[in-house]
Amino acid sequence: MATCRGIDLSVYQPAQDWKAREAEGVVFAFAKASEGEHTHDARFAQHITGIIGAGLVPGAYHFAWPNQDVAAEAANYTAAVRPHAGPGFVHWLDLERRSDGANYAGVTAGGIRAYATAWIAQVQAAFPGQRVGVYTSASDLAAGHAPATVPLWYPAYPWSGATPYARAEARPQPSPSGRAPLFWQFTSTPLDRSICYLSESALRAWAAGTETDMPLTTDDVNKVAAAVVAKLVAGGGVLETQDVSKVAAAAAKAVLTMDGVIAAPADAPDVKTNPFWALQSYVKDTNARLRLVQATEAAQSAAITQLAGAVAAFDKTIDAAALVASVTAAIEAAVRKVVIHLDPAS
Question: What is the rounded average pLDDT of the residues 22-38?
Answer without folding.
Answer: 98
